[in-house]
Structures are given as C-alpha cells and as structure tokens.
Design brief:
- By secondary structure, the protein is an alpha+beta fold.
- The chain folds into 2 domains: 47 residues; 127 residues, Cathepsin D, subunit A, domain 1.
- It has 4 helices and 11 strands; from the N terminus they run ααβββββαββββαββ.
- The strands form 2 sheets. Strands 3, 4, 5, 6, 7, 8 and 9 form a 7-stranded mixed sheet that branches. It has a 4-stranded antiparallel sheet with strand order 1-2-11-10, with no helix packed on it.
- The radius of gyration is 18 Å and the shape is globular.
- The N and C termini lie far apart (43 Å).
C-alpha cells in the first residue's frame, strides 16, 4: 500500500474520530431534544420524511435569525432543532427560510413567493423535482435580488414549488454558491459575500 493511500486512510480516521468527539460534546452540552444533530445525516433525512418528525420552526414572530455582522457578512443562530434559519429579503418583502446545503436551488413555497412579490412568467419552464416528500413540479425563475443580513446577491436561480408541495422555503446552493464562503463557527452559520 502506498504512503499516499495510508495517509488518506489515517486522515479519514482522524476526521471520523473528531466528528464523534464533537458529537459527544454537543450531546453533553445540549438538551435532550437536540440529539437529532448528533445522528448521522442519513438518519436525520429519514426522520425528516416522517410526518411526525420535528419540523424546523421558521415562523416565530419577532425572531431575528440573521444577525448583522458587518458589511458582506451574516451570522445565523441555530434554531432549537439545530437548523439555521435566515430572514431573506427581496424588494417585494421578506420571509424566513431554512438554509439547506442539500438543496440545489432556492425553493420557495407558494405562500412565501407571494409574500416576496416573486412570480413566474407565463412562459417559465416547468420542471419535475425530487423532495423529501417525493416528486412534484416546480417553475424555474430567477430572483433579481436576494438579501440576507448585509449580504446582497443578484440573479439567483430559484424554483417556485407547486402549492402544497412544501411547508418551508429553502435557501439552497443557488444562493450559497454565489458567496465567497460559509462555515459553522461557535454554533453559528457564518455567511460571507
């Protein structure tokens, strides 16, 4: 076995060990309901598909999930279930969205699209998409301006989900990949323009 392969195996084992230690520390310092984050991602995804699974709370009135952190930066606090929720603004309004690195696009519920003043053109492309709840249809659009904290991004590809297809709008990779970076630091999701 080459030294490169051995080094890769050792680095992988170190990363797994570090993840387990971090999960144990979180389990010791967080209340029992926070244990969902310590489980493997596949288990969390399976739980999310269950109708009785805890859904991220994105509707708390008065809550300000995006904390301004200076020009071109936003800090997002984790919600009670460990999910990151952002206050997303467009020229037409604002809504709270779940930050989801597993979503290829920004995905808007029908109600949130209306609240943001976002509509599809008559000739907009309809596509079939796979969600945690199965396949559904969506309409491709481009959002002219999307703002989170002091970050402003233009020309963001998005999907308008069919009515009833989703309970929560997602701030997906079509927004996140336009940033210079994002990371979790000290329990906060840091977005950088």
């Amino acid at each position: 076995m080459s030294s490169v392969v051995k080094s890769a195996i050792v680095m992988g084992l170190v990363a797994v060990g570090a993840a387990q230690v971090l999960a144990q520390k979180r389990a010791q310092t967080q209340p029992a309901h926070a244990d969902a984050q310590a489980r493997p991602a596949a288990t969390r995804r399976a739980d999310a598909a269950r109708p009785d699974a805890a859904r991220p709370d994105v509707s708390k009135p008065g809550r300000k999930p995006a904390l301004a952190a200076g020009a071109g930066m936003a800090l997002l606090e984790a919600g009670r279930h460990g999910h990151y929720v952002a206050r997303v603004e467009t020229p037409g309004g604002s809504v709270q969205m779940l930050v989801d690195t597993g979503a290829s696009f920004v995905a808007l519920t029908d109600a949130d699209a209306r609240a943001l003043g976002v509509y599809a053109r008559q000739d907009a492309q309809k596509v079939t998409v796979s969600t945690a709840n199965g396949q559904t249809t969506a309409t491709r659009i481009t959002m002219d301006t999307v703002r989170v904290g002091s970050i402003t991004v233009h020309d963001v590809p998005a999907l308008l989900m069919a009515p009833g297809a989703s309970e929560t709008s997602l701030l997906g990779m079509s927004f996140l990949r336009k940033l210079s970076g994002y990371e979790v630091a000290q329990g906060r999701l840091v977005l950088r323009q």
